[in-house]
Amino acid sequence: EISWIQTAYLIPEVVMIPLSGYLSRLWGTQKVFLVSCAGFLLMSVATGLSSSIDMMILFRALQGFVGGAMIPTVFAVAFTAFPPDKRVTASVVMGLIVTLAPTVGPTLGGHLTEWLSWRWLFFINVVPGMLVLFLVGRYAHFDKGDPSLSKGFDWFGLGLMGVFLMSMQFVLEEGSKNDWFADTAILSLAVIAAITGPAFIWRSLTYYNPIVELRAFANRNFTVGVIMTFIVGAALFGGTFLLPLFLGRVLSYSPSQVGTTMVVSGLAMFATAPFAGRLVRKLDLRILMFLGFVMCAWGMWDARLVSEEWGFWQFAGVQAMRGSGVMLAMIAAQQVTMSTLPPHMVKNASGLVNLARNVGGAFGLAFLNTSLTTNTAIHMGELTSRISQSNTQMQGMLAGMAQRFSGSIDPHASALKAVWGMLHLQATTLAFGDAFALLAMACGVAAVVTLFARPVKITPGAPPVEAH
Fold it and tell me: Closest by alpha carbon to 144, among 86, 83, 81?
């Protein structure tokens, strides 16, 4: 049940992310952000005050839906309210915050849980959230809405989009836990997603006032950038998922120990951001994206050798390479994706880019979860096939362990269980190494895809678009 605390947030969020572009054009960026942020804060408090798991799931679902508009509107502002020579700085700052958050989250969350209680994971949002509401309400008059867009609102398209995205997200989130298509619910939702997805695309391309403007994909750089962002999402969320899981499951780290180890990735991103901003102005963005993905692949490839003997510094080296690479790739990908689009497409395009990152993360987690389960079983079979109970060394080991468990009801069974535990731990470690290698290969593929983008030149001194 506890996994639904996360799943309940992510499923409705994927509907609001692309919808946020339409709402920003209808009401204006400031109003959409203020409503989204206020709703997010209210649901944070409600979740923290929950007295049952069902209440938590409900409030998290509402939090995901209302809060889903915040990040896309912020990214859109970087390309609509700033002149081109300031957009890079704005993108670096926004990209830093967005990528730093899921990295610092486990660190802060681990310590908060131990110092106070889990409820403070939600209450901590209130003070910075109130400050954000005040500042945005006071200063963020970026644009005005267009009420005429409310005429002919595409309710049918919204329904298709909602069913498609929520079905797909559910399949990705829950598929690996339920043996994928062997589960009736997963199979049914996969079929629904396969039908409503193409129907939604058809509706968006043919309706005169679509909720999501898909014509941005006619721009080659935007298409390449969305693919890049998808893989950045898998690398960012996948790495942030795998490492804490390994530290807890294999090394038995406490939440605070996991947090302390994970902080290196955030620090690496933070340190890389200023250099990324300068390099974006001086280098071909394709080179920067290529370099970022190669660094990320390098870090993940090193992690394939992970073992129970690894300590803080081995993990720190892996995280530093991955964190720096993700930051370089993401900042460059943002510029490649958005810089060549006409101004009227930017808000919708921002929603699509953020959707690509979140869906990429969901695909990455689903794939990695399945990989861990499958490869653990494969490695366990390989390890046990090499060991025979008739082996004299094995017999001696079992006899020694049975002596240690002499106080138990069945010492021999206890010894066998202990040996099985040792083998399973080794198989799990090997499976984590395989998962890190898969992430490395995905980043390597992304590095090759970057070469298909067209050159982008950032022109200083041009005026901002749609800014007021």
Answer: 81
Q: Find out whether 250 and 380 touch, Cβ atoms under 8 Å.
A: no
Q: Of 262, 280, 325, nearest to 101 (Cα)?
A: 262
Instruction: Compute the radius of gyration of the chain from its Cα atoms.
Output: 24
Task: Give pTM, 2 decimals.
Answer: 0.70
pLDDT of 310: 84
- For residue 388, what pLDDT is reported? 65
Q: Which residues of the chain have pLDDT under 70?
A: 1-3, 79, 84, 95, 98-100, 102-103, 106-107, 149, 176, 255, 339-340, 343-344, 347, 388-398, 401-403, 405-408, 410, 412, 455-468
> Is 186:177 a contact under the CB 8 Å cutoff?
no
Per residue, the 3-state secondary structure of the chain, as one string, reads: CCCHHHHHHHHHHHHHHHHHHHHHHHHCHHHHHHHHHHHHHHHHHHHHCCCCHHHHHHHHHHHHHHHCCHHHHHHHHHHHCCCHHHHHHHHHHHHHHHHHHHHHHHHHHHHHHHHCCCCHHHHCCHHHHHHHHHHHHHHCCCCCCCHHHHCCCCHHHHHHHHHHHHHHHHHHHHCCCCCHHHCHHHHHHHHHHHHHHHHHHHHHHHCCCCCCCHHHHHCHHHHHHHHHHHHHHHHHHHHHHHHHHHHHHCCCCCHHHHHHHHHHHHHHHHHHHHHHHHHHHHCCHHHHHHHHHHHHHHHHHHHHHCCCCCCHHHHHHHHHHHHHHHHHHHHHHHHHHHCCCCHHHHHHHHHHHHHHHHHHHHHHHHHHHHHHHHHHHHHHHHHHHCCCCCCHHHHHHHHHHHHHCCCCCCHHHHHHHHHHHHHHHHHHHHHHHHHHHHHHHHHHHHHHHHHHCCCCCCCCCCCCCCCC
| Token digits of residue 411 | 């010492």
Q: How many CB atoms sit inside 10 A of residue 233's CB?
A: 24
What's the confidence (pLDDT) of residue 460? 47
Query: What confidence tens digit (pLDDT) does each residue in 388-409 have?
Result: 656 666 666 667 766 676 666 7
Per-residue model confidence (pLDDT) at position 462: 41
Crossing angle for the helix pair 84-115 and 70-80, to the nearest 10 degrees: 160
